[in-house]
Amino acid sequence: MTRPDTSARRPQSGQEAAASTTSATPQTSSPDRKSTLSPTAAPQTSFATAPKWPLAFVGAGGLVILITYFAVLLTQPATLGQDLGDTTLWVMLGYLAGAALIVAGTVPLIPRRVYGMIPVAIALNVVIGQVVGTMTPVPLYLDSIGTVIVGVLAGPAAGALTGVLSNLIWGVTLGPSVIPFTAGAAFVGAAAGWAARLGAFRHLWSAIIAGAVIGIPTGAIAAPVAAYVYGGGLGVGTGGLVATLQAAGLEMLNATTVQSLISDTADKAIVFVLACVLLRTLPQRVLRRYPFTRWSLPKSAAAASADR
């Protein structure tokens, strides 16, 4: 007589049943919780993941702008900014070459829609800067609001590009005297993007601090140009402050440096706060078009924007 096989009907233990259930269940790849819940995990082309050649173009553009800046300081051309003569033109060409290289490098790094926003930012810079700098006694500029907004919305490369183009267009149309300050304008735009990436625009107080800190090197960049090329501040308010400091006994460079540090520190703090406030007034449909803003919105708002 054949004995029945009882091993096939032997009850399974708890561990064996769990293992059998696990092996029988198809394994599905679950998405990373961080990538689905965190707004900072949204895919975007950035400097960290971009190909090397765009970064090389951006770096080369920044180098050309720096070379042009130091050439202005070393040569101290007497006719620079007075008209659109040969001296002003070669300075313009130097800054334009740097801007062109930045454009070539930023095309794959920022959304195409950003380029449609830059003309609006340039107009904002020129109009406000012209009014504040030439028609008021306030020792401020407020000529970088559009530049900072672009840097916050689209990143440092787009911000630097906006700063360069703003000064060049402003110089050609209204006043060549702003052209030598293009290096500082490029720095402000890039620094706004870097500050946004670090979360400086999540709070008003951090935006004020970031703007004041960035104003220090900005003033240091502008002071030698104002002193050596123009003999002091150019605006109504800034020129008056330089004259007051000189009357107190400071030499031209020292007076211009103090004025630049005071004016730029206050100016950039105000501009950064204005950009922070404006960012919070933009509708969600606009913010979703610019993924870089996820670094600047409060975390709750950034998460809500990502979910929508």
Q: Can you describe what's shown?
A:
By secondary structure, this protein is mostly helical. The protein has a single domain, classed as Arp2/3 complex 21 kDa subunit ARPC3 (Orthogonal Bundle). 68% of the residues lie in helices and 0% in strands. The protein has 13 helices and no strands. The chain has helices spanning 14-24, 33-37, 52-75, 86-106, 113-135, 145-154, 156-173, 182-197, 204-228, 236-247, 252-281, 284-287, 299-307. Helix 7 runs antiparallel to helix 8 (182-197). 42% of the residues are buried.
Main features:
single chain, mainly alpha, Arp2/3 complex 21 kDa subunit ARPC3, 13 helices, 68% helix, 0% strand, globular
Structure described in brief:
With 308 residues, this protein is an all-alpha fold.
Run of helices and strands: HHHHHHHHHHHHH
Radius of gyration in whole Å, from Cα?
Answer: 27 Å
| Sheet having the most strands | none
CATH topology: Arp2/3 complex 21 kDa subunit ARPC3
- Please tell me the total number of domains: 1
- Number of helices in the DSSP assignment: 13
* SS content category: mainly alpha
Level-1 CATH class name: Mainly Alpha
Low-confidence stretches: 17-44
- Estimate the mean pLDDT confidence: 80
Please render the helix and strand layout as text:
Elements: H1 14-24, H2 33-37, H3 52-75, H4 86-106, H5 113-135, H6 145-154, H7 156-173, H8 182-197, H9 204-228, H10 236-247, H11 252-281, H12 284-287, H13 299-307
Helix pairs in contact: 3-4, 4-7, 5-6, 5-7, 6-7, 6-8, 6-11, 7-8, 8-9, 9-11, 10-11
